[in-house]
Amino acid sequence: MKKLLFSALISSLLLGIVGCGSQGSGSSSNNAAPAPAPEQAPAEQKAEQSLLDKVKAEGKLVIGTEGTYAPFTFHDQSGKLTGFDVEVITEVARRLGVEPVFQETQWDAMFAGLDAKRFDVVANQVGIRPDRQEKYDFSNPYTVSTAVLVTHKDNNTVTGFDSIKGLKAAQTLTSNLTDIAKQNGAEIVGVEGFNQAIDLLVSKRVDITINDGLSLLDFLKQKPDTPIKIVAKHPDGAKNGFLFRKGSTDLVEAVNKALDEMMQDGTFLKISEKWFGADVSK
């Protein structure tokens, strides 16, 4: 009898052990609640944060610009940073709900600064070119700059780019504007910059200059009595946009949305006419 009771007790213990093992296996079945995901390390969370999320989280848009390129980005007589590009990107930042923070640097250093993540965006009349588009993202173009043919106000013989062969053209030597003058047969008279070209033209020591259309608009707005006139516009306009690191998709889309809204509600035209007296987006 004692042997039978001892056998029954051993059997019960064995069944209990098997039962516990089956219950443990069931906790990893498809019916069980999934185990919580492991927490991400801070570095992983940061890597997944889009640039737009970062900008909004920090409450500021860091903008690279020259600060020496009037009328687009320069300091006024009081020392305040101002200009067309400064006002446009400031309005974009306002519509994103963040503060614009400008960091000034030289032109060449702006690209390196963007690569090094010192800026979120560059606002400095950056031309949208295929070689740059391979490495960077651009906003939609917000200005179109066209080369213009300029003569003295009294000159009635120059009528277009096909009429400048053999004429003296005041040009900086390495500019793409000089290439246009050469392609049309003009004789190049080297100058240091825009102002010297205009001075030579006013004094009739040269016949023409081919220069940037937006710079001409700004100059004539400042000095409307200067005896010069725009004879023709080159058919190939250069489009300019805000520059971003490659992959800044969310921020680029948000900036484009703000630009679109500014153009539709008249804000962009108001800024454009303030600085150039014309709509420079076309």
From TrEMBL:
Listed InterPro entries: Solute-binding_3/MltF_N (IPR001638)
Domain of life: Bacteria
Gene3D superfamilies per the UniProt record, alphabetical: Periplasmic binding protein-like II
Pfam families, per database record: SBP_bac_3
SUPFAM superfamilies with a match to the protein in the record: Periplasmic binding protein-like II
Record keywords: Signal
CDD domains with a match to the protein in the record: PBP2_Ngo0372_TcyA
PANTHER family from the UniProt entry: ABC TRANSPORTER EXTRACELLULAR-BINDING PROTEIN YCKB-RELATED, MEMBRANE-BOUND LYTIC MUREIN TRANSGLYCOSYLASE F
Region span, Disordered: 25-46
Biased composition (Low complexity): 25-44
Organism: Brevibacillus composti
Start and end residues of each Solute-binding protein family 3/N-terminal domain: 60-279
Leader sequence segment: 1-22
Name of this chain's protein: Amino acid ABC transporter substrate-binding protein
